[in-house]
Every structure is written in C-alpha cells, then in structure tokens.
Amino acid sequence: TAEDGHGLWLRYTPISQEAVLTEYLQTVDHFEVHTSSETGLLIHEELTNGLTSMYQQELVATEGLEHSLQVCKTDHSLVKGLGIDAGIKEQIGAEGFLLRSVQREGKSFLLLTANTDIGLYYGTFHLLRLIQTEQSLVGLDVVEYPRIETRMLNHWDNLDRSSERGYAGFAIWDWHRLPDYLDPIYAEYARANASIGINAMVPVNVNSNALILTPMYLEKVKALADLLRPYGIKMYLTARFSAPSEIGGLATSDPLDPGVAAWWADKAKEIYSYVPDFGGFLVKANSEGQPGPHDYHRNHAEGANMLAKALAPHGGQVIWRAFVYSEENPVDRHMQANDQFVPLDGQFDDNVSIQVKNGAIDFQPREPFHPLFSAMKETRLAMEFQITQEYLGQATQLVYLGTYYEECLDAQIGIKKATVSEVIEGQSNEQEHSVIAGVANIGTDRNWTGHLFGQSNWYAFGRLAWNPDLGADAIADEWIAMAFDHDPQVHATIKDIMMHSREAAVNYMTPLGLHHLMATGHHYGPGPWVSELGRPEWNPVYYHRADSFGIGFDRTAKGSGAVLQYQKSIAKKFGNLKSCPEEYLLWFHHVSWDYEMQSGRTLWDEMGLHYQSGVDEVRRFASQWESLEGKVDARRFEEVQMLLTIHEKEAVWWKDASLLYFQTISNRPFPAEIETPK
Ligand code: GCW
C-alpha cells in the first residue's frame, strides 16, 4: 500500500478479528447525528469514514434506535427519560461528553451526548478510538471532560514559512496565499488536533513579528480562525511588545504610557472585529533579546497587566512566558525566572497566565521540574512542553516524549502531595483558565513531523493535555494500535522501542544530570567544548564545569544556590549529594571523577557506561525494527529503518565526542566494559 504516514493516527484500518467485528455490528451498525451545525457535519463525515473503513462494509441504511449510535446534545428530546442526571451534565461542561449504552422502548443503542457540538465531536473521536484500539463497547459508560481548559499548540513559525526549531519542512501556514487560498492541509491539521482535544493554537513564533497585528495579516488570521472554529480550535497571536512603536508610530512602547495602553486597547478591539472569539496574546518579553517592559524599567506584571486590560473587555487572555534570562545578569540562568517572577506573585490580573517551561534551563533531555511551579501560589501557572525535538535528536532520532511529559507532570513539588500537573490544572490553588502548551513539531513534510515517531509526541501531548493522568504507557498503546496494524508482535516491538527511547537519548547525550552540551546555535549533535559564542550562558562549559577535580554544576547553597528555589523538602533531597537522585546528580552538584556511585563504580566509569548503554539501546532499537520487515508497510518501514541507521551513528557520535572531550579533563582511562571512543 502507498503509506506515507500522512494519515497519522486516524488511519481507521480494518478490524483485525471477525469476532470483534461481529460484536461491534451488534452494538453500532448505523448512526444518527442530531445536530446540523458545521461541527455536526464533521461528526457525520468522521463517523461515516471511520466506521465504513474499520468495518470494511457500508453502514446499515435503516433508521431506528436498535443497534445505533445516537449523537445528540443533552437538551435533545432523545436524552429525556434516559435517567441522565444533572450532575453529569454539569461535570462534562463545555467540552466533555457522555458515551453510554442505553435502552429505550426495548431497543438498545449507544448514546453520545454532550452540552455542546464540540463535546459531541470529542466524543466521536473517543468512540472511534475505542474501535481503533479494538476495545469492547458492551455496557459502555464513559464520562469524559478535559482537565485543563486551554490545550494549545505554539507554532514557532515565521511569516516567511521558516520555522524556528522546526525539523519537518516548512511551516504549513502559507501567509502569502491567505486569506483567499485555504490550503486543504489546514482542515486536516484541525481535524487531527480535534481528535486529541487540542483546542487552541498560536500560528506565529514567540520571537514575534509585529506585522501579524496589521490589517493585512489580520485578514489572513480571520480566514484561518474561521476555518478552525468548527473544529473547536481558538486562535491566539504572539504580541511583540514593541509593536506600538514599530507599527503604531508611537514614540514609546512603555506599558505605563497611557498612549501605549490605548493603542493596545484599540488593537485588541480591532482584532476582535476580525476574530470575535480571539483567544488572546502569547508573549515572550525580555528574553533572548526580545523587547519587553524592562526596556522601560517596568516589571513583567506591569507589562502583562497592560495587555490583559486591553483584552479583558473581550474575554481574552494573556499568556506571558517565564522563559527569561539575560546576558547582563551574572546569576545562574537556572534562577532568573524565579528571581524575576516570585516577587510579583499575586500582582498579575485574573486573565494572565504565566507559561513556564517544564524545567529551568531549556527543554533538555532531562530536567528536574521548574522550581517556579512550587513558588507562585497566587498566580496561574501554565505548562510549556516542547514537542519539536530541538534538544532531543531533532527529526533524525526516535524519541518518544510521553515518558518525558509524564515524569514532569507527576513530579511532587514538595507541598503536601501536590504534583506539577495539579498546579497547572489549578486544583491546588483553585484556578480556572488553566493552560498547557506544546511547541509544535508540525511542518510540510508528507508525514507532518519529519520522523514518523514525531507523530506519537504530538499525540501524547494532546492526550496528556486532556488528562494528565493518562500515562505514557497507555498512550503509547493507543497510538501504536491506531498508527499501525493490529499485529501483536509489531505492537510489542514498537512499544518496547518507544518506552525505552527517551532514557536512551538521555544516556548517549547528557547522562546523570548533564545538560546543554549540544553544539552551539543549531543544537544538532554534541558540542560540550568551549564555543565561539561570547555569551557565557550559551557556552556548554558553563553547564558542565568539568575540571581536574570533577564535573557538574554546583547549585547547592555553597554553589549558585538554585536548589534553594525549591520547597524545603525538595531542596533538601536534591541539595544533598547522598539523597540527590543520580539522574540529577550533575545538575545540582560538582562531583569528583572518583566519587563512588550507587553501583560501586567511580563517577567517571559510570558516565562511560551510561554513554555506552545509550548506544547499545539504539542498536537494539535498530535490530528490533529490522524484525518488523514485511509486517509494517514498506514505505514507513524503510523510512524508519534509514532514520535508525542515522540515529545509531549519532548516538555513537555523542558518546565518542563527549567521552573523548571529557577525558582531556578527567585524565582517566575509559572503563574496560565500553567500546573505546574513536
Ligand atoms: O529553546 C530556546 C530556543 C529558541 C527559542 C527559545 C524560547 C523561540 O533555542 O529558539 O526561541 O528557547 O523558548 O523562547
């Protein structure tokens, strides 16, 4: 078959077993959609395509309740008398749904009901997913609703279609041909996102261009927003802080200048005239050279609140990023976000969220959770994950990030039993308008994500955004069942590769808490040595601090003190050499090369073994994949096979380059168990 991966996890492959198909036909052999909105049409189309493709037969043409799926809103007459209590309607809210096997007039059928059309659309994908993953529909009773309100993709895409840290071709947004030409890929994109519950997006880079806020572009924005709306996706834009002076002709962009505030208020009004349900602004300010309130000696709250006041009359939100650090600041980069934001806790307007990267440095293969998540109790905090693999092998390495996201979401922050995910959901501090964002890995490549397995990261992000407790393991199961055929050996093999892939990457790149050792600038491949860049915090040696004594960044009280930004119990655990988990050892401690690790080996030997094990794992992945020849369609098989060959070369490159470089500092022989680096 001509498989190119474009169908993502929505391939709707035929049911693999006769008995399963028989059961499905006895439960749902036809359907009726009782809503005629645009979303209703999408539901109709999805069910028709999905069911006929998986059943491999036309659906029964007759109407009637028996063996049907009835799709209707909770206020529909069909729902009355079915004993669905008001509590459920309240619980499912604006986006959730109920999927239940019911009986009426002696007929059994499946009811999909929701308060809104979007809820019905999400329920449709849920049902189709149950069938795709071949689960029983007998006695179904599912109540689902999203745990986080805004589940968004951040595209770091520029207006010229280049993409910052994108590895899957060009940006899909064709601003040149918008608004009149609506590339069919937009609808495909919207449908794929709706299938995993993503309900918001920002099509432009956080390193923003003020032009997006001009009428010429707002026309284009409107066209996109109109297209995305029936799929339940709200549009946001990045707001360049200096826009009033850049495109507004004002002499300043000082947030406390009344003229500037008025300019933004007018701009917001104008945007809402194009996009009545516009979501709001995403802002990167005073970070990596971007303009911001500090340029006018104002703080982040003064900047964010000024924009928030412009959006508030229209119901819009400001999502203000906490990824800030500056070259002028000599303080450990790890600490700068807490330093700047914690004093402002409680000062942000109600419609402001602070979007925090999962860790304090920058999407490294492994980072402890960001200390800000436990330090701002009066401020709504949002999560920013990276789906695009800037520091995780870009589009040549197979790295499943479900386990990565899960590790951070499940981390305990040191306040009672609270976890990072509860902070974002708002359970621990009772906040609405929760936000989770993922930096998208989508581009013009036929398979959307460059590496076929990049699709699993897009999928995992969406599923975890819907329910942070789902688990990376269960999500991998879903994705594999949907993206491949139903062969148990294929499934088990792919799952084994996926579930071990992230740990392997950590091992061959930056084991034991090492970080930011990627080649300077493009971040592709190893570069732990001194870089040419003047900025100290862009220089890998700033992070590993290797010297004749040992290696690692001392962030204890004796060092930079960054560990003290965590709650006491966490600071104690990470800050003590003995209790610090070895996976974070060199993140928080400067440790002797001869330090005795839990294994009894020296740190130097242990590092060598970690690098080697990363390489060994990738070799194992490659040979496991080989065993799938003839079982996975040829095109996807070969694509992944070729990429695994590159992946293996790159893992060896990482191990060899890193160990040879560190050996010039440690002056110790390599452990006998590893392949000698060349
Ligand atoms: O990860 C770093 C990237 C930059 C990016 C920045 C950010 C958009 O290397 O390319 O800029 O983070 O998150 O703002």
UniProtKB/TrEMBL annotation:
Q: Which residues form the Alpha glucuronidase N-terminal domain?
A: 8-127
Keywords (alphabetical) are: Carbohydrate metabolism, Glycosidase, Hydrolase, Polysaccharide degradation, Xylan degradation
Tell me the Gene Ontology biological-process terms attached to this UniProt entry: xylan catabolic process
Look up the domain of life of the source.
Bacteria
Group of enzyme by EC: hydrolase
Q: Which family does it belong to?
A: Belongs to the glycosyl hydrolase 67 family.
The entry's protein name is Xylan alpha-1,2-glucuronidase
Report the Pfam families cross-referenced here: Glyco_hydro_67C (PF07477), Glyco_hydro_67M (PF07488), Glyco_hydro_67N (PF03648)
Q: How does it assemble?
A: Homodimer.
Q: Which GO terms describe its molecular function?
A: alpha-glucuronidase activity; xylan alpha-1,2-glucuronosidase activity
Under catalytic activity, the entry for this protein gives: Hydrolysis of (1->2)-alpha-D-(4-O-methyl)glucuronosyl links in the main chain of hardwood xylans
E.C. no: 3.2.1.131
Look up keyword Isomerase and say if it applies: no
Residues of the Glycosyl hydrolase family 67 C-terminal domain: 449-673
Q: List, alphabetically, the Gene3D superfamilies matched.
A: Alpha-glucuronidase, C-terminal domain, Chitobiase/beta-hexosaminidase domain 2-like, Glycosidases
